[in-house]
Amino acid sequence: MPLSRQRGDLAAIAVDLVNSWDEYDDPPELLSARWLRRWLAWHGLEAAAEAVSDDDVPRARELRDRLARVFDAADEDDAVERLNELAAELGTPPQLERGAGGWRLRSWPGEEAGVDGAVARAAVGLLEAIRDLGWGRFGRCDGAPCRCVYLDRSRNLSRRYCCHFCADRVAQAASRRRRRA
Ligand SMILES: [Zn+2]
């Protein structure tokens, strides 16, 4: 699926990385050095994007798997535990910084940390999403074979698809079935 529209949103950094394995694509593996550069730059980490090489790919895939397991966790506590572990491993002690909208608590390294630094941000983004929305809002796309992940921010908990392409694809298939019937 395409990268999230929420550029720079910390949780979107996570969602986009997990979705670099996309069952709807053939082959499903999209993660390469080129993909990492596009993902990092999209989320405003230009210096990290420039520094990416092929050597970063195995590490990025490993971290992607760990983030994916948060979506497939046994329950909310399990999801939080996995994310707390990632934040402890990759994050930094909290520092208050001046941001565009006032003070901001930052607990991740600078761009020199590369993919690890991006995933530190991603882990915080998912932790905040659990705090604000609950882990029940973490979903996987219903548009088989796609299994991409999403965060359901809808008011009535109605989201079922990762993106509008999957929603349209499923709707079109259903209408073809109805016409045949
Ligand atoms: Zn999908």
Quick rundown:
The chain has 181 residues and is mainly α.
What letter string, H or E per element, gives the SSE order? Answer: HHHHHEEHEEH
| Strand numbers in spatial order across the main sheet | 1-2
- Shape assignment: globular
How many β strands by DSSP?
4
Distance between the termini: 31 Å
State the share of residues found in helices, binned by percent: 40-55%
- Provide the residue-averaged pLDDT: 95
Q: Summarize the biggest pleated sheet.
A: 2 strands, antiparallel
Binned strand content: 5-15%
Level-1 CATH class name: Mainly Alpha
Topology:
Blueprint: H1 10-18, H2 33-42, H3 46-51, H4 56-71, H5 76-90, E1 95-99, E2 102-106, H6 114-133, E3 138-140, E4 149-151, H7 164-180
Antiparallel strand pairs: 1-2, 3-4
Helix pairs in contact: 1-6, 4-5, 4-6, 5-6
The structure holds zinc ion (ZN).
Zinc ion binds at residues 1, 141, 143, 146, 148, 161-163, 166.
